[in-house]
Amino acid sequence: MSWLVGTFGTAIGKKLFMSVTGLCFCLFLVGHLAGNTLLLSGADAFNAYAAKLQSLGALLRIMEAGLIFFAVVHVGTGLYLFYQNLQARPVRYRVNASGGGQTLGSATMPYTGVLILAFLLFHLVQFTFVDKGDAGVYALVAAAFAQPFYVGLYILAMAVVGVHVSHGFWSAFQTLGMNHDKYFGLLRMGSVVFAVVLAAGFAFLPVFVGWVA
Amino acid sequence: MTKLDAKIPGGPIESKWERHRFDLKLVNPANKRKFNAIVVGTGLAGGSAAASLAELGYNVKAFCFQDTPRRAHSIAAQGGINAAKNYQNDGDSVWRLFYDTVKGGDFRAREANVHRLAELSVNIIDQCVAAGVPFAREYGGLLANRSFGGAQVSRTFYARGQTGQQLLLGCYSAMCRQIGTGKIKMFPRREMLDLVMVDGRARGIVVRNLISGEIERHTGDAVVLCTGGYGNVFFLSTNAMGCNVTAAWRCYKRGAYFANPCFTQIHPTCIPVHGTYQSKLTLMSESLRNDGRVWVPKNPGDKRAPGEIPESDRDYYLERRYPSFGNLVPRDVASRAAKAVCDEGRGVGDTGLAVYLDFADAIARDGRATIERKYGNLFAMYEKITDEDPYRQPMRIFPAVHYTMGGLWVDYNLMSNIDGLFVLGEANFSDHGANRLGASALMQGLADGYFVIPYTIGGYLAGTPLSPVSEDDAPFMDSARQVTERTQRLLSIKGHRTVDDFHRELGSILWDYCGMSRNNDGLAKAREMIRDLRAQYWQNVLVPGRGDDLNQSLERAGRVADFLEFAELMVEDALARQESCGGHFNEKFQTAEHEAMRDDENFCHVAAWEHTGDGSAPQRHTEPLAFEHVHLTQRSYK
Amino acid sequence: MATIDLTLKIWRQNSPRDKGRFETLAARGISTDMSFLEMLDVVNEQLTLDGREPICFDHDCREGICGMCGAVINGRPHGPQRGTTLCQLHMRHFADGDTLAIEPFRARAFKVVKDLVVDRSALDKVMVAGGYIAANTGSAPEANATPIAAATAELAMDAAACIGCGACVAACPNASAMLFVGAKVSHLGLLPQGRPEAARRVLAMVREADRQGFGNCTNVTECEVECPKEISIANIARMNREFLKAAIASRER
Ligand SMILES: Cc1cc2nc3c(=O)[nH]c(=O)nc-3n(C[C@H](O)[C@H](O)[C@H](O)COP(=O)(O)OP(=O)(O)OC[C@H]3O[C@@H](n4cnc5c(N)ncnc54)[C@H](O)[C@@H]3O)c2cc1C
Ligand code: FES
Q1: pTM, whole model, 2 decimals?
Q2: Which domains does chain C have, with CATH numbers?
């Protein structure tokens, strides 16, 4: 067994992929949210931000490619873990109960993950891989969020993201071996706070844009 | 009466072991791999022996009845392990540990063995630390000690209240390493049901595979028996449920002598019995007596709650009777004292069979936090079982069967009278005389396994011509057939009483007549009762299920059948020993102050019993004991 | 003495090949001072006298230290009480008329042998892979030659308290054994005596756990709350750290 397989093929190795890519997504989400808050400043500011991004050219392509690659790794590994974990208990319990360890986030990771993937594809089709025309991306967004259905959908999706991140964030640190008596409580709480801020921040935008429109 | 040869080496006691090691023949390193050793039992004695022998290069086959070696009964030891390191600078030495152990054993142990044990004690701690045992430490990083079990120096090393667990994990991990190298072949869930002899030597064993029911035959060049004690003959004891006499008893029936079977230890601090359904008794570590004070009401029948009984109406009877040792007197003394006050009607609790162990003073003196740090896990265990909070009301405790000093007779090399059968740990009789001091059993098990057997087995193998044997040889086939027949017989009785029911009755006979105190009439009566019960057993026991799969009732049935035979020998031994010593207290032989009175003139010896056939009386042999270094005195803890 | 009546829905399975089924049994007049296993003893005595096969369950010490007992009671390994093995769980924690579903620990790596008895030898295999310090008998240096800070020794002891019962595996939604492996890696790795082999040990043990078919840890932490010895998931993080260090920085392969 080559040491690479013996490292990254193990339970911990696979989780390493999950945690590193997951943390990158967290970072991405922070950036994305920061950018998107420009929606609050109106069409011009947001369109200018979009144009600026586009002007990065190759750099943007590389970042996009990176994100896609990370997504493939994160989703692929996640599904494989999910499959393996199902295999690890072929006969299920008749009664399932929790001793209090699991949280909404940890109990639903694979499911929230798949929902997020579906949402992501939808989101990309809706706003990214689409002809933005002359009106600019703000108009596209405003048009979408004028419809309560999309607002509702995005709020729901952000709730799911929040649930996923509430576990994923601290869990990534745990997987990397970062667990310390002094900071562990803070990290676990911080993880929930981070998830709520992210989800609420993202969810607020469609509401705001829809309301303005 | 034949005299037994203990093969004690000559010369000054301090250098006997060293010289003996030099005199023992060695097996050439390249030849070690040609020898196969069978190690039965994977507790501290068996685990350390198996690992050490494998490290030397012998091929080891190790057996235990649990699903993994790490669950042997040794795991339950709480309090600690003694060693004469004198780290505390409080006057300890190899000599003092030797002296304390001989005296604590009420002068019924072999001086030479005990001295060796004390010498080796220091190496054990080194070995355990190297193997990763996380003993308690001082802030500076050096090892901590506490005083324990009737010692006036602090020589006990401990890992919280889980010392046995940590020591066993040390042995178990050393075994794991050797299992990995292929030097140890581990056979878990096997119960040894017979010893196989070829040409008068121990050459193998027959075991039952507890999962498949298969009767397996295993050959070896020596058999090392480390199967623990027989305390469960009393049904209720602090021993794990599976502890048994079967392996030792099967060896006895093949000719090994059983020594001092009546020497059983009743531990003073256990949670009292509280129901007929009860399956076992739980020990509250003796370390509690370092801070807890033992008392009962002064007046018989005082039913007030403990908190309502004023100081003036309390009798701190250990402190009163033994001012210099107080609550820390040895176990036999403390247990008998508890029985005495209960017999006077001063026992507490619903049954009147309990005394108080009170921490109120210690908590007031040191604060609750200190007591919690020292005994938190024990207090929690007490509360779990009794639903009472020992921080607020005194614990109720009562003596319970705990350890058996008796066992198969062995010589200085730990070899029984059968060539090639070595016996280690609690299964042998050797080092504790008539009473074991606290924290000495773990020490003995590890001394035997780590540091004695690796030398003495070599001496035997190098000096003995051994012909090749095969599992298919007649002695193996015969033994397997007998074992199968016995199993079938137990299954075919299909009577009306369960195995546990018989076992419980046997236990109560022994507890009443061969327990904390004994008398000749009672013992004679018990002998008859046991014979009756045994006869009934073979006619009326109900063992459900089959023999060819996992059948826990059948496992118990075999063990109880052996207990029923063994119990008679125990009573016989108690009757034959017309004196009191240590854990053996015959009411006829006591001082004016009700202390045990030895008869050194007639009984300063080991009694070793030989099986002479079913239905015929066993023969009693003796090994005289000489005390040249610790002078025979009346034990006093006043 | 209070007594209660219970209905047991208990898993019965004759052999590893048998499909198994739930059987409903009545447990009457159970004293609340009994332990859970004593309750099963009482039921078994009755089954025996009725000419039926008693329920097989593993147990030995009945003091919560050997790690031999264990079953899942109403979905909870070792039952509902925190920090308590099945043998130490007392019936006073149940109410008259309760129905208890009693199932064996379930995992691919733990085959059911019979009824509630499972084969946990996979845990031993993980230990054989590297759960030791290679210190031959006789070669140990003086015990006090290497001081170990009391706090470190305590931390090692916290991990070493593991009784190897397998409740962590049973509790984990993924049937992962990482709390067990983490505890072993931590116990030995925290001590200076265990450092020389630390890298080799963690790689070997983690790989072996995979080979035995345990699931992957997703930090659900059910193990920590169900562990009868309350072993912390900090040990899992420590193992992860050791693993990364070993895989990436050490020369071990
Ligand atoms: C509750 C409790 C607390 C104690 N605390 C202390 C203490 O603090 N300090 C101290 O020094 N001592 C203590 N002791 C005593 C000490 O634990 C034991 O005497 C000691 O551990 C015995 O070790 P052993 O290796 O001889 O046998 P055990 O540990 O009993 O091991 C016996 C082995 O033999 C196997 N076996 C038995 N019968 C068979 C068979 N028929 N076939 C196959 N295998 C078999 C078992 O599977 C097991 O592996 C305590 C005892 C008890 C009960
Ligand atoms: S029987 Fe030993 S832990 Fe429960």
Answers
A1: 0.97
A2: 3-113 (3.10.20.30), 121-252 (1.10.1060.10)
